[in-house]
Structures are given as structure tokens and as C-alpha cells.
Amino acid sequence: MDLLNTLVEKGLRRELPSREEALAVLTTSDDDLLEVVAAAGKVRRQWFGRRVKLNYLVNLKSGLCPEDCSYCSQRLGSEAGILKYTWLKPDEASKAAAAGVAGGAKRVCLVASGRGPTDRDVDRVSKTIGAIKEQNADVEVCACLGLLSDGQAERLKAAGADAYNHNLNTSESTYGDITTTHTYADRVETVRHAQGAGLSACSGLIAGMGESDADLVDVVFALRALDPDSVPVNFLIPVEGTPLAGEWNLTPQRALRILAMVRFVCPDVEVRLAGGREVHLRTMQPLALHLVNSIFLGDYLTTEGQEGKADLDMIADAGFEVEGAGTTTLPEHRGGGGCASACAPSDSASSDSASSAGAEAASARTDLVTVRRRGAGTDLAPNA
């Protein structure tokens, strides 16, 4: 396909594809799926070889969030039967993190529900970062605490944090349909706060919330312009008790096309396969390793993931290798952040093509969604 040859050439040059090219990836047929995966795989291997970075989530505070994000089981008014607990103590969080590191995780992601941290919360998290670093000096620590106020990113950096996560989630034009208690601009500002403090920025999206193809391209192009070092791609986990519990509109094939599009737009960035991979990719998860270079190990914030050993077996069986602690994830030219001039956004004309998701709608697989009952906040061993 001429489209795929063009996208591979652009990806190897770190050149931004046009909007039309990105949209075209999302509308390729299932018959062409393996060609799409193979093409994006060439770009992935150019910049990351066959390495897979493992990340591990520690939910420091679960539930009780005042925000109304429709996709989230921890949201205000959620009726989901999730674990709810207040802040873990530093030693509890460090113990949970150690399980992930022992399982092969190179990065620990510390997440807390809420609009954003108070200064006291930043102090709590700073102590937790110190406890984790004391036990595992080489592990990367990423904080995800919501909207940041002036000076908070600098304090987290001083405490030893390596990165900060705050996802854009969806396009600016549809953001108000998903969340009303804060704005898309608030999220962009927080990512910039993190970058300004010298933290590695991590910002991604959630697919499967009923968005159009144009929305997906919009948010991925916005992420490219924002230039985070890591782009997590989440697939909506429709948890019962949330407003989007009925959104079952992803197929494994569509999920792979979305990942391929992200890789073509963000060729030299850590693309991380995040929440929902087990639910929507199912037995086709190994194919995604040809598109992404990073995954989460074990469970997510409020739902359970694939067993950690199964993750490691999948990586090995697919011919990939776990990225070691002594290996730098990003290509040398990125230098831990920042893009070359080739990463400048294109002026290509936009396209408003409608999503083809409706035609691919999948039946609800509620049997694949299991609320987390182990690990942080419980007396049971974590999944790592």
C-alpha cells in the first residue's frame, strides 16, 4: 500500500504525517490489518528495537474523587463497587512498588484520585518517593496526582520524581462531553508545569469513549505538539456504575489500528499500551507489541489486569525482551525530552471523516472486567 510506504518513510525520518494519512490508518480494512501492523512495526523497531519497558501502578488513594470524569470508576457519584481507601503510608506504597520492581518493572507510577494535590499531599508523596528510591535507587518514579499548582512540580522533582503523568484523554472539542469539573486547557497547563520543572512528561489518551476518528487524530496530533516523552494509550474499561459502562464499541482490530496510528504520529516517543488491553485486545495482545514499546505490568487502578507472569511470557513468546534498568528508553536524539525540528506540526488540511467504530461495534464483554481486590489497600498480595 502506498499509504503505508509513505507512513514508514515519514516515521523513519520523524516527520509528521498529514491528518488525512492518520485518518486513513483508522479506516483500513481488517484484510489489511497485518500489513498495517508490520508497517508501524518497522517504525517501532527503528527507534526502540525489540525492547519492552514495564511499568507498575500503585494506587495511593482509591475512590472519593470530586471530579466527574465519565470514564472513571473513582468519579464523583460513581456506583462502581471498587476499593476505596485514603492515602497509603510511605512504607505501604514502597512495599507495593517493590512487588512491581521484582516483577521486572522499570518505572513505578504513583497515582492518587482527586482534582489535584494539596501542598500536604505533595509532602506525603515526596516521602513515598523517598521511601521507594531508598529501596530501589534505580527505579523511575512517575507521579500522577491531578492538576498541579505553581511550584508543586518543582517540589516533586526535588523529592526525586522522574516524571509526571496527566493525560489529555480526548480531543479538545469533545472534552466537555466527558468531564465538566475541569477543562482541557487545565490538563495542557499541568503537562507544561511538569515539563517546566524538568520532569519527563507523560500524557496520553483514552480510546473507546464514543469518539470519532477525527477526535482520535485531533488528540494524538495535540499530544505530538505538546511533546511528552511517553504517550499512554488506554482503551476504555466500561466499569459498571459509571456513565460510560455501555460503551462497548472497540474490536481488537480497531484497537490495533489506533495503536498503529499513534505510532506513525509519534514515531520516536515511548508509546505505552495501558488500561483496557486485556479487555479489548484479548488474544491479540501480542500483536500490539509490534506497535508499542511499553506496557503496564499486572493490575490497574481499580480493575485487575493479566497476571504478571503471563505478561512476561507474552513478551518472550512474541520475540521481544524486557528493557533493563540500565537501558535508556528514549532514542538519543530526544535527550530525555524535546523534539528535533522534524517534529514540528504539519499544516496539512484537516478532515472531518466520521468514525467507523459504529460499524465495528463489539458485544459487551462484562465478564472481562474484574474489580481489583488485591494489592494496594488490601491484605492480599499484588499482581506483579
Secondary structure elements and pairings:
Layout: H1 2-12, H2 19-26, H3 33-48, E1 51-61, H4 90-102, E2 107-112, H5 119-135, E3 140-144, H6 152-159, E4 163-165, H7 175-178, H8 184-196, E5 200-202, E6 205-207, H9 213-226, E7 230-235, H10 252-265, E8 270-273, H11 277-280, H12 285-288, E9 294-296, H13 308-317, E10 321-322
Parallel strand pairs: 1-2, 1-9, 1-10, 2-3, 3-4, 4-5, 6-7, 7-8, 8-9
Helix pairs in contact: 1-3, 2-9, 2-10, 3-10, 4-5, 5-6, 9-10
What's a concise summary of this model?
The chain has 384 residues and is an alpha/beta fold. Helix content is 35%, strand content 12%.
Describe, in plain words, how this protein is organized in 3D.
It is a single chain. With 384 residues, this protein is of the alpha/beta class. Helices cover 35% and strands 12% of the residues. It has helices at 2-12, 19-26, 33-48, 90-102, 119-135, 152-159, 175-178, 184-196, 213-226, 252-265, 277-280, 285-288, 308-317; strands at 51-61, 107-112, 140-144, 163-165, 200-202, 205-207, 230-235, 270-273, 294-296, 321-322. Strands 1, 2, 3, 4, 5, 6, 7, 8, 9 and 10 form a ten-stranded parallel beta sheet that branches. Helix 6 (152-159) links the parallel strand 3 (140-144) and strand 4 (163-165). Helix 2 (19-26) packs antiparallel against helix 10 (252-265), helix 3 packs across helix 10 (252-265) and helix 4 (90-102) packs across helix 5 (119-135). The longest helix has 17 residues, at 119-135. The protein is globular. It starts with a helix and ends in a 62-residue tail after the last strand.
